[in-house]
Design goal:
11 strands; alpha/beta; 8 helices
């Protein structure tokens, strides 16, 4: 970005993995092991899994497998991920960014379940937003917009007045499908043309206003 950009919003909807928490090391370990067990190319698997719930990634990668098996496999994977916090760290600037949102409408909207999201946020030393939309809260995974629409509804804010922070193609597609503007965080987001792209959260500033607040990107 060559200049300062300011977007106004009434609420922020925040993805977790890749946006607030860098969990790539764990995701790579677990999913590459899964790929090996199923005779799949690990690099190709990694192109699919970011942003989606595990069962939804499995449905893309193993389209002929019954969904019941995907759901059971996903439950095992979630348990593995929740037990493995090695290498989980905050995205640079995440703690300060979350602190700046105190008193402002915002929600976590993640494909992780309650146990995994709680463990990863704690491992990264980040406070959990009061409003959370997790895997248990929705019937459809990103790129379906259900999670973001539910987050907006719980905050009482119209979708058009929400600003989504996301790192993955599935998440950016979900935010767009919800009728929201999307801030892409990190290198992965760059290939999906978000409205604004930032390398991390260190250059994001929130300025309070009347009704709406400004989010500044430098």
């Amino acid at each position: 970005m060559l200049a300062t950009t300011v977007l106004t919003a009434r609420a922020l909807l925040l993805d977790m993995d890749g946006t607030l928490v860098n969990s790539d090391a764990v995701v790579e370990r677990i999913w590459r092991r899964w790929a090996e067990r199923h005779g799949l190319d690990g690099d190709e698997v990694m192109k699919v899994v970011h942003g989606r719930q595990g069962y939804a990634s499995m449905a893309v990668l193993l389209p002929d497998r019954p969904m019941e098996q995907n759901l059971a496999d996903n439950a095992r994977m979630l348990a593995e991920e929740t037990a493995d916090m090695d290498g989980v760290v905050p995205v640079p600037g995440a703690a300060e960014f979350l602190a700046s949102l105190r008193g402002l409408p915002h929600a976590l909207v993640t494909s992780a379940d309650v146990a995994l999201s709680t463990a990863r946020m704690a491992a990264a030393g980040l406070g959990m937003p009061d409003v959370r939309v997790t895997a248990e809260s929705v019937g459809a995974s990103k790129p379906d917009p259900e999670g973001f629409l539910k987050g907006a509804a719980e905050l009482g804010v119209a979708p058009a007045d929400c600003l989504v922070f996301e790192d993955s193609g599935a998440g950016i597609a979900a935010g767009r499908a919800a009728g929201m503007r999307v801030v892409g965080v990190g290198v992965r987001a760059g290939g999906y043309r978000p409205d604004v792209l930032v390398p991390d959260l260190r250059g994001v500033r929130v300025e309070e206003g009347v009704g709406k607040f400004g989010v500044q990107f430098t």
